Design the sequence.
């Protein structure tokens, strides 16, 4: 049995804020603003897992008004989604994602992000795709006002090889 999930996340960018993506701190003059660590990629992937399980969205599990999650490491959110997924007998088949960010170029960081996701999703790295696109200088991404990430994930039940 398979379930597909889709997740999306947007954060505002501001000068001199940290930019954390896929669990990595990335050198940048602009960073994402959020209640947690504003890891847009992890939020989109976490949202996709909740979506595949029809368990609401990331905000319904981790409210952005709850002091508990202030500056939280978003790997904690992903870990909870993975825990619920496993509790329901599912595992990840593959994930594909897109980060929309004007600057900096993310290519040098992509494989490390894939590694982080693979480890946390308990799958091989060749089952994890992370792509990066600019906003071509138009829209909020292109004007460096925002970062956006989207992810689709496929979950399977009883598809483990062991
Ligand atoms: Mg978010």
Sequence:
């Amino acid at each position: 049995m398979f379930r597909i999930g889709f997740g999306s996340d947007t954060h505002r960018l501001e000068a001199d804020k940290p930019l954390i993506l896929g669990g990595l701190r990335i050198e940048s003059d602009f960073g994402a603003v959020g209640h947690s660590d504003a890891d847009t990629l992890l939020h989109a992937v976490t949202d996709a897992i909740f979506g595949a399980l029809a368990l609401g969205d990331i905000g319904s599990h981790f409210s952005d008004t709850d002091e508990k999650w202030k500056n939280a490491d978003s790997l904690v959110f992903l870990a909870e989604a993975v825990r619920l997924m496993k509790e329901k007998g599912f595992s990840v088949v593959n994930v594909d994602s897109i980060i929309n960010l004007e600057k900096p170029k993310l290519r040098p960081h992509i494989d490390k992000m894939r590694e982080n996701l693979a480890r946390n999703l308990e799958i091989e790295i060749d089952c994890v795709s992370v792509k990066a696109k600019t906003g071509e200088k138009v829209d909020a991404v292109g004007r460096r006002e925002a970062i956006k990430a989207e992810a689709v994930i496929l979950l399977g039940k009883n598809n483990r090889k062991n």
